[in-house]
Amino acid sequence: MKKVWIFMAACLIGASLLLSGCGSGSTPETSASTGQKSSIPADIKAIKDRGVLKVGVKVDVPKFGFKDPKTGKIEGMEIDLAKAIAKKILGDENKLEVQAVTAKTRGPLLDNGEVDLDIATFTITDERKKSYNFSDPYFTDGIALMVKKDSGIKSFKDLNGKKIGVAQSATTKKALQEEAKKQGIKMDFLEFATYPEIKTALDAGRIDCFSVDGAILYGYLDDSTVILPDRFSPQQYGVASKKSNTGLAKLVNDTIHEMKNSGELDKLIQKWGLK
């Protein structure tokens, strides 16, 4: 009987050890400051082991993510946010690798693991939440309308029967269609891969209006164009990650909360002249 009890106790201890090491999705890591072991999520450990954070960013949105054609450098508020997250994970904001994305490509690049995060004017919607983790919003905007000054277009209703240029896979088209239905007007849409293509189409007269979030439009405003006062459908930008990367999603959200509470996020918005 004594041998049986010893055997059962050994089994229980072994099972306990086995369970404690399974299903957590985390790996023990020793703290350099305290010498104590702490648990680190597997998705964050993978980034640490790689030594670089990979982020999908816009390169055609002035003030958010824009590649200077003269220097080749990509700068903007979202690039600074990516640096802050890289520093949080890796202790160095320069351990960051950015990749250009568009409204159409940012999702697939996240899906296939080419980027860890998308920080790319990615509007948070209930539909998108089914596919990705989204952080709390770091910027809120509204859909706006840019037209040529000499077009005679003064309001949304003046776009009845007109052609509107929008980005592929963006939320703009759906929002404008809903508003047009409310106001009893009809409009046609042409979809483009990039914002510069939409602006070129507006300048060439192929479309009557360039529509996207207001802060993005201001980056393309010039002497020949005007942005109408109308605003539709609040657009909240969030940092997106794969559904399975819950540890990374939590770290990102915690970082944004810290930046909001410290005023650092407001400083970034002011730095880049965003409203």
From TrEMBL:
SUPFAM superfamilies: Periplasmic binding protein-like II. InterPro entries: Bact_solute-bind_prot3, Solute-binding_3/MltF_N. Pfam families: SBP_bac_3. Residues 1-20 form the signal peptide. Residues 52-275 form the Solute-binding protein family 3/N-terminal domain. PROSITE patterns: PROKAR_LIPOPROTEIN (PS51257). Keywords: Signal, Transport. GO terms for biological process: amino acid transport. GO terms for cellular component: extracellular region; outer membrane-bounded periplasmic space. PANTHER family: ABC TRANSPORTER GLUTAMINE-BINDING PROTEIN GLNH, AMINO ACID ABC TRANSPORTER PERMEASE. Belongs to the bacterial solute-binding protein 3 family. This is Solute-binding protein family 3/N-terminal domain-containing protein.
